[in-house]
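== Polypeptide entry ==
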Amino acid sequence: MWWPSPAKLNLFLHITGRNDRGYHNLQTLFQMLDYGDEIQFDINTSGKVTLHHSLPDVADDDNLIVRAANALKRATDCQLGAHIEVKKVLPMGGGLGGGSSNAATTLVALNHLWQLNLSVSQLAKIGIQLGADVPVFVEGKTAFAEGVGEKLLPCEQPEKWFLVAHPGIQVSTAEVFAAADLPRNTALISWQQYSFDTTHNDCQKIVMQQQPKVAKLLRWLIEYAPSRMTGTGACCFAIFEHAEQAQDVLQKLPDEWSGFVARGVNDSPLLTFLSQLKRR
C-alpha cells in the first residue's frame, strides 16, 4: 500500500511576535492539497527502521521519516520494525511541507500498521517534537493555525484549484526568520476575518529581495491569477476557480520552472485513505 503524504499551502502567513522561548508566533491558514509524495511501509520483526533509498546529504537517522518512526517506537515501546520506501515529488525547501508531511504520514501509517491505537492528539504531540508543521498533517484538516503553528482550528475553505510553481532553488527557513527586517508585529486576526485579499505573507518581501528567481516567478504568476508565496518559499501559487484554467497556465510555464496543478481539499488524502482502510 502506498500511503499519501500530501502537500500544503500557506494561504497567508502573518508573524505576530515572539514567545518567551524566542520562537516566532504566527497566524496562517494551512490549505491541504490532493497532491504529494507517497510512502510504502513493509512491516517486520527486526525492531529496526530502514529506508529503501537515502536522501542525498542526509543521514538516515536524521531523516524525518526515520525520526518519526523511532519517536513512535519510543513512545509506545513497540518492538516491531519497518522498511520504508518513498516516491518523492515534492521539492525540498519549497514551503510545501514535504518533510513534515512525510513525518506525519509515517506516524499515522505505523500507528495503524503496528496496531498501536494512539489517538490523533497523541500522535500530534509526538509530531510537534519533530517540527511545527507536523501536527497539521497528522490531523489532516485545512486549518487556521496560531502559536508556532501548533494551535489548529479546522477551517473549511472553498475547494479551489492551485497552480503551484517552483523556481528551482531552496530557501532556508532559518535564514528567513533570522532576517533583521522581517515584520514581527502584524496585528492578530480571527479566523472569521480571513480573506485572501486582506492578508499577506510576511516572509514574501524578504525572500523576493534575497532570491531574484522567486521574485521573477511571482511577477509572472500574478499576471494570470491572484498569487502568493507559500511559507518561507521557494514555491509560489496562483488560485483558480476551475482546473482547466490552472492547466492552461501550467502549459505556459517557462522551462526554467517546474509546477503542478492540485485541488485544495478540506480533508487531506491521508485522512481519507486511513478512513477507507478502517472501513474495510
Notes: The chain has nine helices and ten strands. The two ends are 14 Å apart (CA to CA). Strands lie at 2-18, 24-44, 49-51, 81-87, 143-146, 151-154, 161-166, 227-229, 236-240, 258-265.
